[in-house]
Amino acid sequence: MPKLGMEPIRRQQLIQATMTAIDEVGLADTTVAVIARKAGVSTGIISHYFGGKDGLLEATMRRILGDLGESVRQRQAILEQDTARGHLRAIVEGNFDRSQVSQSVMKTWLAFWATSMHKPSLQRLQHVNDRRLHSNICYQFRRHLDHEQARSAASGLAALIDGLWLRGALAPEGINITRAVTLGHEYVEEQLANTTAP
């Protein structure tokens, strides 16, 4: 019988082991047995908590997405003024937070994106994440721009964030966080130039 309170600890161990395994051997060779070995548990524990490898990958991505949301919220919480510019800068910075650019997290993101094209549950999660990012960005741009301009600006910033992140993840030298954030901020400034808050 498992000890009371062990489930959250076991889940976290398995999520961390999943990211480590993907980092070391890639998703195709990350088997339930490999994950269980890295976590120091039996394979039955993975089936019990997650139903298998796909369920564990989904839980891992939910954790990473939770970390992403928290990194943005922390930046927004310390804004001196409630401005669209400040919130948009927080979104850019949060997407390049250390929690999103470690080698194991970046490889897990890449594995998730590739797998989501073939797994409906992961595809739904990716779709929700995309919609949330676009919606949050669009909401802030709407404070200065009309509906169509805000949608266009939001699509551009979301694509810029994803593109900079992807290029950095695939670059042999890794991601240049400072440069990526600077380019994101410059885009925000260009979109909000010559506008005033309603």
TrEMBL record:
InterPro entries: BetI_C (IPR039538), DNA-bd_HTH_TetR-type_CS (IPR023772), Homeodomain-like_sf (IPR009057), HTH-type_TetR-like_transc_reg (IPR050109), HTH_TetR (IPR001647), Tet_transcr_reg_TetR-rel_C_sf (IPR036271), Tscrpt_rep_BetI (IPR017757). The keyword DNA-binding applies. Coiled coil: none annotated. Keywords: DNA-binding, Repressor, Transcription, Transcription regulation. Residues 8-68 form the HTH tetR-type domain. It comes from the Bacteria. One of its GO terms (molecular function) is transcription cis-regulatory region binding. GO terms for biological process: glycine betaine biosynthetic process from choline; negative regulation of DNA-templated transcription. Pathway: Amine and polyamine biosynthesis; betaine biosynthesis via choline pathway [regulation]. Residues 31-50 bind DNA. Repressor involved in the biosynthesis of the osmoprotectant glycine betaine. It represses transcription of the choline transporter BetT and the genes of BetAB involved in the synthesis of glycine betaine. This is HTH-type transcriptional regulator BetI. It comes from Kushneria sinocarnis. The gene is betI.
